[in-house]
UniProtKB/TrEMBL annotation:
Modulates transcription in response to changes in cellular NADH/NAD(+) redox state. It comes from the Bacteria. Keywords: Cytoplasm, DNA-binding, NAD, Repressor, Transcription, Transcription regulation. PANTHER family: REDOX-SENSING TRANSCRIPTIONAL REPRESSOR REX, REDOX-SENSING TRANSCRIPTIONAL REPRESSOR REX 1. Its main location: cytoplasm. GO terms for molecular function: DNA binding; DNA-binding transcription factor activity. This is Redox-sensing transcriptional repressor Rex. It comes from Baekduia soli. It is found in: Cytoplasm. SUPFAM superfamilies: NAD(P)-binding Rossmann-fold domains, Winged helix' DNA-binding domain. NAD(+) binds at G112, A113, G114, H115, L116, G117. The gene is rex. The keyword Transcription applies. Belongs to the transcriptional regulatory Rex family.
Amino acid sequence: MSVGDLTKPHGAGDTNGADDTEPVPDRLSLGVAARLARYLQVLTKAKKEGKETISSQELSSFTQVNSTQIRRDLSGFGKFGKRGVGYNVDGLVSQIRKILRTAGQHNIALFGAGHLGRAIASSDVFADHGFRVVAIFDADPEKVGTSVGALQVRDVATVPQVVEDEDIVVGVLAVPSSAAQTLADQLVLSGVKIIFNYSESLLRVPPEVTVHTSSPAVDLLYALYFYLT
């Protein structure tokens, strides 16, 4: 089902536009930040489909967050206009990006030019949220110099210089577990503070570096637990 297929009535507590925002706190709680990111995912999809307004009930149906909680989360950052109309999609996307401090463009270095790496590079999953893959690396000499879309695969030996030249803030690891820690070490030494890890390796990094590991197996176990209980 697409966001555009939804026809539920707009919630009475919803708002339209973004005209009276509150100052953003220095640091959001993990729960609020996680929920806002989920709302942004749905809103971005709705925006791509040309949807102009969306209700809290619609957001709830896609995020599995109670509509009352959604309204509470959003009202904590200010008033968004008239009640009973629905949230203005474009305005709310901009506001949540400001709240999450993700407005603007952020450059990514992708490691791994295999099937997964190429799928990530060709996907809109990052671009839709202001992240742009500007460099792809691989340790395989046969892949170095080949093209992935408009980018040429680089040798991992050039990581420090490329991170500096391209102002890279995020490293994405789409590599075998055996190579992940070495690459993470290179990224840390190059000054990258955020690593998105698609491998099963448990990375060891300094406290100031954030690692998010995406594991389909763990996600399935989580879903299965709630299905069985």
